[in-house]
């Protein structure tokens, strides 16, 4: 498997990366940088691609997703207070 290949990821991880990437692009991040950040987030939360073997399941750490949601909420909250 070539380095950077996404063949060892689950469909759920791929969908998650796409969704995160779209969010970064909406906020003005370039396509390549958005993709890099999205996969970094997926790897941080799930520990990388599929792992074979019984009992390999591990709880995912969603702290980075929560952080992003809180950041976005704060920004939009501040915008709505301003009088135009």
Q: Tell me the strand percentage band.
A: under 5%
The helix fraction, in percent, is 55-70%
Judging from the principal axes of the Cα atoms, what is the shape?
A: flat
- Secondary structural class: mainly alpha
Radius of gyration: 16 Å
Number of helices: 3
Give a count of the beta strands, DSSP E runs of length 2 or more. 0
The N- to C-terminal Cα distance equals 54 Å
Name the helix and strand elements from N-terminus to C-terminus, one letter apiece: HHH
Average pLDDT works out at 80
Unreliable residue runs: none
Task: Summarize the biggest pleated sheet.
Answer: none
Describe the structure.
By secondary structure, this protein is mainly alpha-helical. The mean pLDDT is 80. Helices cover 61% and strands 0% of the residues. Helix 1 crosses helix 2.
Any key phrases for this structure?
single chain; 84 residues; mainly alpha; 3 helices
